[in-house]
Amino acid sequence: MSAPTQAHAATPVPTGFQLRTPQAWVDFPVADEASENRLGEEARGHALTGGFTADQAGRFAEQVRRSVRQARRGGAVHAAGVFEMYEDGPLTATVVVAVVTPPANGDILGALTAVAHPNRADGTWRRVTTAAIPRIGTVGRVYGIQNVVQDGVTMRCAVMHSVVPMPGSADVVVVTGSSPNLAEAEDIFELFGAITESLAFTWDDDQPVLAARPESTGETAPDA
Question: In this predicted model, what pLDDT tens digit does every residue of 145-202 receive, in sequence order?
């Protein structure tokens, strides 16, 4: 009689992650609603220090508030952004990490954005592809120029979603980069790709952060 086959140990679910952003970037905690105003004021201060005018700083602060609010509602566990002034104008960009439960049909990319219509008459476009992340493997990706709606305000942005399978879980981690700097879109996409490639899971965090919130589903994932 053959010896019984030993059951394989279940793959442990990661409790945290590491993500490297450039030195000039600032982390945005997204733990609760009270953080929105605080982060907006911090963004305003950083923008003014970086050379933004008061009007530019105010508009950027409001953009940060909207981005953090939508990210938090969509299951975000981390957000970071940059706001720098150059001779030819300001550079603003955000990266959000969210834990998402895929929809019943499993089409998380389709749920994140309308990939069935990659090119539209209004000039927006989307491309679906894959990417390789060291220490993780192949992930799904959709990127392009989108009209991002946040709290009723529409802004055209360069957007990249990367969908990363989470070991030991049916949930996925979605890393989303967004920037209104359309003239530099190709460079922005390269930057978002480089940031996403730094993603690595960890398993020894005292306070686990990688857990989907009850309202976080593919259908309600952030569009930004």
Answer: 988 876 677 889 999 999 999 999 888 999 999 998 999 999 999 999 999 999 999 9
Yes or no: say if 50 and 196 are a contact pair by the CB < 8 Å rule. Answer: no
Q: How far is CA 198 from CA 14, 61, 93, 96, 191, in A?
A: 16, 27, 17, 14, 11
- Spatial neighbors of 186 by CB under 8 A, at least 6 apart, are none
| DSSP calls for 23-49 | TT-EEE--SSTTHHHHHHHHHHHHHHH
DSSP 3-state assignment of 61?
Answer: helix
pLDDT digits (tens, 9 = 90+) for 175-190: 999 998 999 999 999 9
* Alpha-carbon span 177 to 183, nearest angstrom: 16
- DSSP class of residue 182 equals G
DSSP classification of residue 211? -
